[in-house]
From TrEMBL, chain A:
Record protein name field: Carbon-monoxide dehydrogenase medium subunit
Domain FAD-binding PCMH-type, chain residue ranges per copy: 1-177
GO molecular function: DNA strand exchange activity; FAD binding; oxidoreductase activity
Gene3D superfamilies in UniProt: 3.30.465.10, CO dehydrogenase flavoprotein, C-terminal domain (3.30.390.50), Uridine Diphospho-n-acetylenolpyruvylglucosamine Reductase, domain 2 (3.30.43.10)
Active site positions: 12 (o-(5'-phospho-dna)-serine intermediate)
Listed SUPFAM superfamilies: CO dehydrogenase flavoprotein C-terminal domain-like (SSF55447), FAD-binding/transporter-associated domain-like (SSF56176)
A Pfam family assignment: CO_deh_flav_C
Record organism: Bradyrhizobium yuanmingense
Keyword field: FAD, Flavoprotein, Oxidoreductase
Automatic annotation (TrEMBL), chain B:
Keyword Metal-binding part of the UniProt annotation: yes
Cross-referenced SUPFAM superfamilies: 2Fe-2S ferredoxin-like (SSF54292), CO dehydrogenase ISP C-domain like (SSF47741)
Organism in which the protein naturally occurs: Bradyrhizobium yuanmingense
InterPro entries referenced in this protein's UniProt entry, alphabetically: 2Fe-2S-bd, 2Fe-2S-bd_dom_sf, 2Fe-2S_ferredoxin-like_sf, 2Fe-2S_ferredoxin-type, Beta-grasp_dom_sf, Diverse_Oxidoreductases
Protein name: Carbon-monoxide dehydrogenase small subunit
Domain of life: Bacteria
GO MF entries: 2 iron, 2 sulfur cluster binding; metal ion binding; oxidoreductase activity
Domain annotation 2Fe-2S ferredoxin-type: ranges: 8-84
UniProt keyword list: 2Fe-2S, Iron, Iron-sulfur, Metal-binding, Oxidoreductase
């Protein structure tokens, strides 16, 4: 199918892109990798007046690794995150999660910034960002602001981004040495999106959990942090009973989505199953 | 006055030839390739970016050309199935598909071949699992994939582990 007609501007600066958004917040859409936006335009689920292509903006590109952490530009593609050796040396979670997103061609175009800004409740990166305690850097009319990923997602397809703001970068604090990571998902067999996906960052010292962060996607209106389950695990061993109890706490942490594909009860059950599998994968 | 139907000038390289064309902003790259440039080897099989029949290479990466705007191709270097060999020769991937009966109706084949190029670039000696994962973005309604996997296995470089 063919999208309805729109105007198109290839932005040459962040300021220009923000100005264009401000001129007509309702009628303007940013275009990053286009792998969510263009399918929805083709199906005429949206018909913006103007697309602002941000693909040339160097400020939104690149992966930088420093002593304190990792900065990822919003335009970094899933394939780049999969392939980056320096990144995956620090955080192999990127390769693991990126490899579970869509297919190779989609990964070559789709961007992490587009995925987070779009806030599909079943997208994969949101869970990973939560587990990594990422901070999101947002560009707007009056400069930059930052917000923790855990405060970024608001509802189905909804974030704290204002209509004239652009997700610029993601900052990830350098994890404590010895932290281990896992991302697991139950894929929707047709779309490949997560029916439930769970990302965990976990550190053990002398067999006791000393740090744990859990991010969940797919299950609810938006990705969320499993705080109670993680708190419960601190100071405990990864015994069968402790894992079971954490899984129960996690599935009680949210009101699950219910749709044609999976009922709320089924999703709540998948949360338990996936958390158990994820924790077992991290058990030495 | 609406400028939405205005045509934008786009310049890119396709199969080694430089082209400048005019396209509406909403024009999808695949339609430009097929209808304006007459390169009909690139197919359209779905409306949902899932089938991979439209796969071409942009700047060396396999992408679904139904999900790229023609205007975004400014400055790009594109290869379509027609660009693999001059004339009617088969390139090694096409020859392997022929040899292993990796096609029936052939509708998915150009996209498959373009994805196999990417797959073998990333993993010169892929396992069967790697091949199936690498072709996850291409749907074939005829072959059951089995002979496609065999064709790709026959191309895997020996002795080199990815
Ligand atoms: C066949 C298929 C399968 C897929 N499977 C999966 C999957 O398994 N898991 C998964 O997580 N995703 C999946 N996706 C989605 C894919 O990962 C998208 O690429 C991604 O969600 C959006 O990124 P994009 O760069 O393509 O964004 P675009 O489509 O360009 O934009 C998406 C939305 O975000 C806005 N936006 C984009 N960038 C910014 C920014 N920097 N700041 C503010 N707003 C911005 C746009 O205006 C638009 O509203 C799939 C997509 C397809 C087509
Ligand atoms: S036509 Fe492009 S993915 Fe189906
Ligand atoms: S050979 Fe017919 S769709 Fe693949």
């Amino acid at each position: 199918m063919i999208p309805a007609a729109f105007d198109y501007v290839r932005a040459s600066s962040l300021t220009q892109a923000i100005d264009l958004l401000r001129n007509d917040p309702d009628g303007t859409k940013l275009l990053a990798g286009g792998h969510t936006l263009l399918p929805s335009l083709k199906l005429r689920l949206a018909s913006p007046a103007l697309l602002v292509d941000i693909g040339d903006l160097a400020e939104l590109k690149g992966i930088e690794i420093s002593e304190t952490g990792i900065r990822i530009g919003a335009l970094t593609t899933h394939a780049e995150l999969f392939a980056s050796l320096p990144l995956n040396e620090q955080l192999p979670l990127f390769r693991q999660a990126a490899g579970l997103i869509a297919d190779p061609q989609v990964r070559n175009r789709g961007t992490i910034g587009g995925s987070l800004a779009n806030a599909d409740p079943a997208a994969d990166w949101p869970a990973v960002m939560l587990a990594l305690q990422a901070e999101i850097e947002i560009a707007g009319t009056s400069g930059f602001r930052t917000i923790l990923a855990r405060d970024f997602f608001v509802d189905i397809f909804s974030t704290v981004l204002e209509a004239d703001e652009i997700l610029a970068r993601i900052n990830i604090p350098r994890p404590t040495a010895g932290t281990r990571f896992v991302y697991r998902k139950i894929r929707h067999p047709a779309s490949g999106f997560a029916v439930v996906g769970i990302a965990i960052a976990l550190r053990l010292s002398q067999n006791l959990v000393s740090e744990a962060t859990i991010g969940v996607t797919g299950a609810a209106n938006h990705a969320f942090v499993g705080e109670d389950a993680a708190d419960f695990l601190i100071g405990k061993t990864l015994s069968r009973e402790n894992i079971d109890q954490a899984a129960r706490l996690l599935s009680e942490a949210t009101e699950c989505l219910s749709d044609r594909y999976a009922s709320a009860d089924y999703r709540a059950n998948l949360i338990q199953v996936e958390l158990k599998r994820a924790l077992l994968a991290l058990t030495p | 006055m609406s400028t939405r139907e205005e045509r934008h000038t786009v310049t890119f390289e396709i199969n080694g030839a430089r082209k400048t064309v005019a396209a509406e902003a909403r024009r999808l790259l695949v339609h430009l390739i097929r209808e304006d440039l007459g390169l009909t080897g690139t197919h359209v099989g779905c409306d949902t970016s899932q089938c991979g029949a439209c796969t071409v290479e942009i700047d060396g990466l396999a992408v679904k050309s139904c999900t790229v705007l023609a205007v975004s191709a400014e400055g790009a270097s594109i290869t379509t199935i027609e660009g693999l060999t001059p004339g009617t020769d088969l390139d090694p991937i096409q020859a392997a598909f022929h040899e292993h009966h990796a096609l029936q109706c052939g509708f998915c084949t150009p996209g498959m071949v373009m994805s196999v190029r990417q797959l073998l670039k990333d993993q010169p000696a892929p396992s069967e699992h790697d091949i199936r994962r690498g072709l996850a973005g291409n749907i074939c309604r005829c072959t059951g994939y089995h002979n496609i996997v065999r064709a790709v296995e026959s191309l895997a470089s020996k002795g080199e582990q990815s």
